[in-house]
Design goal:
mainly alpha; heme; iron; Cytochrome b/b6 domain-containing protein; disordered N terminus
């Protein structure tokens, strides 16, 4: 089993704050998907749909704020280094996947 690489600060994993932000964003996105499906596919009265839309927008704005906060945190605190024995192609793919997933979270609100 390969040993985890250390960053300059000695970290071998993401910080607790980064992990909490990650899971709050994930929970928020899943909640938004579920709410969107409920609003679109269930026969609800007009006032209930309006209330759900308002809640959906509020949660969406909160998730976008959390994403911005997460990006700021990531810029201020470096991520743990990738394992030294990881193939070069996989390292490049990892970087592109992170950039594209961050871009998609902002461009697809």
């Amino acid at each position: 089993m390969p040993t985890p690489a250390r960053t300059a600060s000695g970290a071998t994993r993401y910080s607790t704050v980064a992990i909490i932000l990650h899971w709050l964003i994930a929970l928020g996105i899943l909640t938004l998907i579920a709410m969107g499906l409920v609003m679109d596919h269930l026969p609800l009265d007009t006032m209930r749909v309006f209330q759900l839309y308002q809640l959906h927008k509020s949660i969406g704005i909160t998730v976008m704020f959390l994403i911005a906060l997460r990006i700021g945190w990531r810029l201020a605190y470096s991520a743990p280094a990738l394992p030294a024995d990881m193939p070069s192609l996989e390292k490049k793919e990892h970087i592109w996947r992170i950039l594209l997933s961050t871009d998609c979270r902002f461009c697809c609100p």
